[in-house]
Amino acid sequence: MPYVNIRITKDGATAEQKEQVIRGVTHLLRDIMGKNPATTVVVIDEVDTDNWGIGGETVTQRRKQGK
Amino acid sequence: MPYVNIRITKDGATAEQKEQVIRGVTHLLRDIMGKNPATTVVVIDEVDTDNWGIGGETVTQRRKQGK
Amino acid sequence: MPYVNIRITKDGATAEQKEQVIRGVTHLLRDIMGKNPATTVVVIDEVDTDNWGIGGETVTQRRKQGK
Amino acid sequence: MPYVNIRITKDGATAEQKEQVIRGVTHLLRDIMGKNPATTVVVIDEVDTDNWGIGGETVTQRRKQGK
Amino acid sequence: MPYVNIRITKDGATAEQKEQVIRGVTHLLRDIMGKNPATTVVVIDEVDTDNWGIGGETVTQRRKQGK
Amino acid sequence: MPYVNIRITKDGATAEQKEQVIRGVTHLLRDIMGKNPATTVVVIDEVDTDNWGIGGETVTQRRKQGK
User: Fold this and answer.
1) Nearest CA of chain F to the CA of E36: how many Å?
2) Which pTM was predicted?
3) Into how many domains does chain F fold?
4) Which residues of C are catalytic?
5) Which pLDDT tens digit goes with each residue over D11-63?
6) What is the CATH classification number for the domain harbouring A30?
């Protein structure tokens, strides 16, 4: 009964990509650790680039600088 | 001074329902564990059904199939 | 299928208290929001008082000062 | 390579304020704990006042009462 | 630069299993969403069965009942 | 009333370092965003290097390789 939280920047991930990630992570935990897929929960959070920082800068700032 | 995070699918919970849940959880932690309500924080996250997976499928997919 | 995370300071909560909190929160979400108890997950994290801060101080510091 | 999650109520924080918080927290972890800024991730979540509870009430309720 | 948090019950997962899960999730996010593996962070939390509830009961209780 | 969660690898951070980080983050949120220090909660999680992955490898693996 794992709980998985995936946080990514909001960059137009499609419903299909999210379905594939959810299916993939669920199968991975079943195959490697024997976890029951029926009770595996996966929640994806899509975060605005103004609200995501790495290296002391927001992703918005980094993209403006071509990083 | 507990911190409680409640994550649910976005399904039109009303402000009143959220107030009741926040009050209820705060009282529960006071009554069972003696936690101080004044510093108990409860945060509710409402998550799009495309972003919530269980059993390897999104809730959007499951509802289409009548699950 | 809610996911609830309850974070408290590590203060000797008993297994019975944790059972009661888990049952209570699960019933609350069923009664107020109609959430299915069978797929409601509640995870309790017990955190060392050196690692929990409020008001700019750790709980360890506050207790030494009788706060 | 710390991961920091800052949750605040949604109250019109500007992009500049968020940049400053991200930079400040990243430098703090470098200066105090020697953490590498290049791999320090900071994510800010802005939460609706209907969804944030303290003292058993939502922030929306408390503000109406002038608390 | 995704951040992934995987929470499972503490059941003797080996270092090798954890390595495989971390590698697998990182590759999945690269292959499906084009996320950069170099900055993908995955954190696994192993939680005591007394502290994990599902269906209103702790996993400890459920296992005693053979569920 | 912000809630801040700081996750770092378990590397012998001292109680003093944790106090300084908690104080520093609390003051930062007051100075930049006007947040009330009295209700600012900061929780530090120290995570085993076997359970922390970056670049598809655990920190344990990376340190063995001198990364």
Assistant:
1) 8
2) 0.97
3) 1
4) 2
5) 999 999 999 999 999 999 999 999 999 999 999 999 999 999 999 999 999 99
6) 3.30.429.10
